[in-house]
Amino acid sequence: MVTPLVIFDVDGTLCDTYSVDDECFCETASEVLGVRLRPSSWEESPHITDSGIVEWLWMRHRRRPPTDREVEMFVAQFEGALTRELERAPSRFSPIPGAAPFLALLQASGWRSVFATGGWAKTARLKLRAAGLPVEPLLASSDDSHDRAEIFKVAHARAVAVAPQPGRPVLVGDGIWDIRVASRFGWPFVGVGEGQRGELLRNAGASVVIPNFADLDASLGVLLDCEVPRPMQSSRGPGE
Questions:
Q1: What are the structural domain ranges in the chain?
Q2: Domain 5-17+94-225 classification at class level
Q3: Crossing angle of the two packed helices 68-88 and 18-33, in degrees rounded to 10
Q4: Most CB contacts within 10 A, which of 20, 37, 119, 214?
């Protein structure tokens, strides 16, 4: 019997942490590099992942890649910034509506759910725990690669290694870069986003976009009906 598989992004998809993550990352980068940065400061980075952005920032401001020790120190300082913000304003680490019960419904319905993120594993687990979501399904992160496509490829490989007769995965994400990953690997895609974000996903090639997972039955249904996206190559937007 084929085991249906779904791969979730984390920030903006399962955890409503996109803004706090950007803010704390920017704060850390500014302090470590001693320059004034804004979240838009790394829009030109070829890899919109934590490790990819750090490598790009070092090359831009220090004319060399970061050392392993510098990356470790950056991750620790970033984790500290998130922890302080969690203590100050825990509401900024909320789950996307319906995320926890939807994950439970998927398990009860025979689906295997795994997570992949362009963030580092330590900080992703912090956000998942803060949002009341499981951390065990996190199979790949920025620790594995600076390339988002490679991160999702690793998550898929690790899921397939332990899943009996896995089916083609569905990728669920909130960013245009997630659409590109799904298109590259031929995976059906479900976008998560409201308002302008949702419209950006539709315009970028997502056949199905939901605002959240609050309607559990409808969310389960779209996993069966979604299609492989055909993104516009020039598209770029939030959540990448």
A1: 5-17+94-225, 19-90
A2: alpha beta
A3: 130
A4: 119
Q: What is the pLDDT along the chain (240 residues), one digit of tens a residue?
A: 678 999 999 999 999 999 999 999 999 999 999 999 987 778 789 999 999 999 999 999 999 999 999 999 999 999 999 999 999 999 999 999 999 999 999 999 999 999 999 999 999 999 999 999 999 999 999 999 999 999 999 999 999 988 767 778 999 999 999 999 999 999 999 999 999 999 999 999 999 999 999 999 999 999 999 999 986 654 444 344
Which residues in the chain belong to E strands, given as ranges? 5-8, 15-16, 94-95, 112-116, 138-140, 170-173, 189-192, 209-210
- CATH for 19-90 is 1.10.150
Sign of the CA dihedral running 97, 150, 76, 113: positive
What's the pTM value of the predicted model, to 2 decimals?
0.93
